[in-house]
């Protein structure tokens, strides 16, 4: 009887497993990710009960538990958790004695990657200040805008940024009662403070703990600025709760305390600061911090420091693939890569070249209230709506008219869901568990991000500004940014898809696709900016045949621009607006331009004569 019962149970388990494999092939991966997310939520609640309500609280716990564990490795110098704690205590003591600031004030940081960025960040946080991370690549006018937007009472300027700062900029700050602190022993004015000398005068004892005490996890911890690609940067409000939640992402990828993380991205970016530094703190792991990304040094550093995981964004992985092949390409301990913006073709090439690294592509934004993680490592996907996803987040893909740049609504003014396999505008439901904190000092921009009464009266959704596609299996794929997609010949053209096809050519190192306007034509036609691989030349005939074979006629770029270096942001994202505005005028652009000329079945040099014929309509597109 018992044998029969056991056989029946065993048979049932086998049938269940086979059925799941056939009908729900991702069931176990969905379940594991769901449980990890639930565990993360439970962890945050447990932290709150134990008085850990900020990233600094979490850091202090790590210092107490494992003070001598290496926390940072910067250019071969190791800083333990205790070292960083004591150094940041000195920063806190210096501002407490000389700062003339109070708890809740905002202090801005203009600093490049290095241990001092973290020492100053943590020291300021220990005093209960809100810290604003400034992009070191923006100029004085934008910097002033950023400082005014977040109402900063002080600015700390890193030693590596001093050379690019104008005296007029500092004078302007002083006139507006913004204190200026330099990470330098010399000052251009008696009114400008120096920090290093004061650090030597104060103790490394902790400042009173009540100063860093957080009364509400929804209070602001940081301001992290958006890229400002469509105007001045906006200060996204990052709450204490968000810093803790984001710190758990690496754990959801299977990372552990023994891992060594390689951070090459700028610390003023949310990926490096919260996913990277915050992730290391949460794990109790070690961070190998790089001043700036170097494709040549990347794998040597990984081998030298026993790196097991790294962060990427934008085209970083492509730059690694563009390096000359070496015998030791697969000789490393890296097992996890987390980031966003890797193209499918690069993804495949990366794995073939560097070995079976688990690439966790995620979708998210600095100001966003929710995110996706491709926990199945499916090439090309930015996330997955599995069978348990409805218990984790609420999102929709809405029908969107790319030509009119607006949502498609029914007769009652309600939005419609995009069908499976078609691009739709991604929106996240704004709820108490998934709030939208908005932008500091910019209520108008905050309100513009919200869509109200989407399906029913009173509902609120966050407009991500991104077009995504969901397939029949629930995988989500990035299609394009609203505004990047353009319309030509009555059809919608996704720049990312065209770039993916052109990037398949063996002479193309990097490609950026955008739409350009032409007089007397509706919409915009395609143009591709291309960086050629070293020792390769542009082949107009081969490119013509390639795009003709793989792209519909309306998506084939009519113009090509050959560039020495691609214009990118500090986080390795392509800049399109400037290129689109320059257009295809050979009298303005000194770089080689080519035109898709059908009679010769090739891309031919774009001369002034051809340019005039296109504008006059003598050559029809």
Automatic annotation (TrEMBL):
The record places domain AMP-binding enzyme C-terminal at: 497-573
High-level lineage: Eukaryota, Metazoa, Chordata, Craniata, Vertebrata
Q: Where in the cell is it found?
A: Cell membrane
Main location group? membrane
Give membrane topology per the record.
Multi-pass membrane protein
* Annotated catalysed reactions: tetracosanoate + ATP + CoA = tetracosanoyl-CoA + AMP + diphosphate; a long-chain fatty acid + ATP + CoA = a long-chain fatty acyl-CoA + AMP + diphosphate; a very long-chain fatty acid + ATP + CoA = a very long-chain fatty acyl-CoA + AMP + diphosphate
UniProt key word Magnesium = no
Name of protein: long-chain-fatty-acid--CoA ligase
Residue ranges spanning the membrane: these are: 6-28
All copies of the AMP-dependent synthetase/ligase domain together span 61-374
Gene Ontology molecular function: long-chain fatty acid transmembrane transporter activity; long-chain fatty acid-CoA ligase activity; nucleotide binding
